[in-house]
UniProtKB/TrEMBL annotation:
Name of the protein described by the UniProt record: Pentapeptide repeat-containing protein
Transmembrane segments: 20-43, 64-88
Keyword match Transmembrane helix: yes
Location of the region described as Disordered in the Swiss-Prot/TrEMBL record: 327-346
Organism: Streptomyces himalayensis subsp. aureolus
Length: 346
């Protein structure tokens, strides 16, 4: 597996602080302080009415001394301001250095985890999966977390032979299939667990993008997850067996796409799922076998589309679903394709 490194040098430079050089800032600060002090002195002079040095309007030594004290007080305040700016600058530089150190350590761990994920041994690959999940949890930035998620999704997109396509009687091929299946299902379980968490850092993955384009699914558990913001793509995915469980999942924002997906066998279960916002797309999806269950699903918001979907076999059941009927489904009173069940209210 070839994965681009986390950060290029150009990215790091753009991410770095854009601070003026000290040899520019300090002279400017001192000149500004002197100008402020002079302004304060002459403002005080003006307030005292001494616009000119005339014999009939003299400033006694006490008044002059007070003006001098005021000027030096302003200078001292400006000096304190300069010290504050320097301290703030130092803090920013320290924080940026800490982020660079954390990113460098993250990249080292990332390289090791990806190496494990590409190992021939399924046990080592499982270790790499958990290492990447831990890296995502510890990521110092959102972009670094997204990179870890992208790698896990990329593993699922690798070529995968379904059980039905294995050579008959080939024990070695079956063992390899079972090992690979365990790694893939572990990735799905880890994603599920992180999508069940509240949408706050550090461990929730809600709001991130997940690219399952063209992935072959022979099972997987997304039950009770929340999809909020981000783009989750199942475009072109193939559901070939087992149960892919979306029961009571909540779709509260973002995009969830099954455009062009093929439901050929097994069960995809959306029982009790709730769509309150965002967009759920099944455009041009092919329902050719198995069961897709939307029983008791609630379509209370957002948009759900089945435009150009093909119902050519299997069972698609919307029994007891509530809310607004998804666009693209046959309208009330028209003949339904075999296997498609809609609630009477639609």
């Amino acid at each position: 597996m070839i994965v681009r490194p986390f950060l290029s040098r150009g990215w790091a430079e753009r991410r770095g602080l854009r601070l003026w050089h000290v040899w520019i800032v300090l002279p400017l600060a001192f000149v500004t302080a002197i100008a402020i002090a002079a302004g304060a002195f002459f403002a005080g002079w003006d307030l005292l009415g001494a616009r000119e040095l005339k014999p009939e309007r003299r400033i006694d030594s006490k008044t002059l001394f007070d003006l001098v004290k005021l000027s030096f007080g302003v200078v001292a305040g400006a000096g304190a301001l300069v010290a504050l700016v320097v301290a703030y600058r130092r803090q920013r530089v320290d924080e940026d250095g800490a982020l660079r150190d954390a990113t460098r350590l993250h990249n080292e761990r990332f390289t090791n985890a990806v190496s494990q994920l590409g190992d021939d041994s399924a046990a080592v690959r499982l270790g790499g999966v958990h290492a990447l999940a831990g890296l995502a949890d510890d990521a110092p930035t959102r972009d670094l977390r997204q990179t870890c998620i992208d790698v896990l999704c990329a593993y699922l997109r690798l070529p995968y032979t379904a059980e039905a396509d294995l050579p008959p009687g080939d024990t070695e091929a079956r063992h390899a299939y079972l090992a690979q299946r365990e790694v893939r299902h572990t990735i799905i379980r880890i994603i599920r667990d992180h999508l069940r968490l509240m949408p706050q850092p550090p461990r929730s993955w809600q709001g991130h993008d997940f690219d399952f384009t063209d992935v072959t699914f022979d099972g997987g558990d997304f039950a009770f997850t929340t999809f909020s913001r981000g783009v989750v793509s199942f475009d072109g995915a193939k559901f070939t067996g087992g149960t892919v469980d979306f029961r009571y999942a909540e779709f509260t924002g973002g995009w969830l796409r099954f455009n062009g997906a093929e439901f050929a066998d097994g069960t995809v279960d959306f029982t009790g799922a709730e769509v309150t916002s965002g967009r759920l797309r099944f455009n041009s999806a092919k329902f050719t076998g198995g069961t897709v269950n939307f029983t008791d699903a609630q379509f209370t918001g957002g948009t759900v589309d089945f435009h150009d979907a093909q119902f050519a076999g299997g069972t698609v059941d919307f029994s007891h679903a509530s809310g607004t009927a998804p666009a693209g489904l046959p309208s009330s009173g028209t003949p339904l394709p075999a296997g498609l069940t809609l609630p009477a209210s639609w």
